[in-house]
Amino acid sequence: MPVIVLVGAQWGDEGKGKATDLLGDRLDYVVKFNGGNNAGHTVVIEGEKYALHLLPSGILTPGVVPVIGNGVVVDLAVLFQEIDGLEARGVDTSRLRVSANAHVIPSYNRSMDKVAERFLGSRRIGTTGRGIGPTYADKMNRVGVRVQDLFDESILRQKVEAALSFKNQVLSKIYNRQAVKPDDVVKELLSYVDRLRPYVGDTALELSEALDAGKVVLCEAGQATLLDVDHGTYPFVTSSNATAGGACTGSGIPPTRIDRVVAVLKAFTSRVGEGPFPTELHDKFGDHLREVGHEYGTTTGRPRRIGWLDLVMARYAQRINGVTDFVLTKLDNYDDLDEIPVCVAYEVNGVRHDEMPISQSDFHHAVPIYETLPGWKQDISGCRTFADLPKDAQRFVEFVEERIRARISVVGVGPGREEVIERHSVLSEA
Ligand code: IMP
């Protein structure tokens, strides 16, 4: 004990790295429990920028055991690319553990992802094209390939053949693509077996033993609350559970062992891909926040859609995840603004909604109700305590805190590791 779950409160890219940096030396294990290489965070090693998509962030912290849980979908080519990239820079990756129950993303699911998006046309989801959705679909359809299958060639062949007997019909007859040869897929997957073997284990058991021994475990979500397949803005979501509940199913850690749930909330909102976005900005404020916040996708390079902070969504994230602590990031991105509108409720067809509307079409038609707070018009990146912040920035933080039903324990005031104000330890109760 303890287990801390870290989630994103919006549509991703909230800056979870701020929280992991802060917790870094207090952690023993960092577990990725959902998603795959659709996520992305940029790390700087000896002045060189490096984008990680699949490996848990803990891979960079000496002494931390990074774990790829059973709930993750693993593209083995990407896994070894990232391992090789880090090893070449002198990072030791030998502590990595990979669940034998995690599913692998065979190359045909990357093709399926891309052709399906093209086929959907204007109804596309705007996926990252990494094969995430088709691989989770295979898992639920019980035609997926798991990491453990790679260690038994005849089982692997059977599974790949079974999956392709259907998919090849779809690829050739619906999407007009060439059928995929099972042999090619099996050969590619088997090419990773020897390198993979030392990392693979019963990670649920290993985590349980670690907790019994008093270790500190962080379960870090990929994506975020509003991209969760159950609780997000379906169908414009990813295909896994990115909320706190997913930490249990995706790692094998039971709910009774979770102590803290930390949600990262960006001081404004961003989204990549399609789907409704009530506070979206199409004006100079959106452009300004995109530029000062460097809001371009790490995985796809796409410019992110930008909007004002939405507290209906933040309250929802608190409720769905049982958030105990918020980390408010990028407060400094508002330094130049005269005033800052914050969405406190929606209006849908003349009716005020303080909570997320139940139907997706109401959410599509939601018009934000804003309260406008004064800006502080000064550089706050040097502030290290709450009292250092200008009064209007303090007021902004308190205004948000009063409306999201959990304390704001950490405030990010700049991109650097040290550019934070820690008001409370996220490891301790209020
Ligand atoms: P998929 O996860 O590739 O299937 O994409 C589904 C949706 O989730 C798309 O709108 C993606 O842009 C979005 N998405 C997936 N991963 C991330 C992420 O790490 N940050 C933000 N959006 C993401």
From TrEMBL:
InterPro entries: Adenylosuccin_syn_GTP-bd, Adenylosuccin_syn_Lys_AS, Adenylosuccinate_synth_dom1, Adenylosuccinate_synth_dom2, Adenylosuccinate_synth_dom3, Adenylosuccinate_synthetase, P-loop_NTPase. Substrate binds at T298, T299, T300, G301, R302, P303, R304. Keywords: Cytoplasm, GTP-binding, Ligase, Magnesium, Metal-binding, Nucleotide-binding, Purine biosynthesis. This is Adenylosuccinate synthetase. Mg(2+) binds at D13, G40. It comes from Paractinoplanes deccanensis. SMART domains: Adenylsucc_synt. IMP binds at D13, E14, G15, K16, N38, A39, G40, H41, T128, R142, Q223, T238, R302.
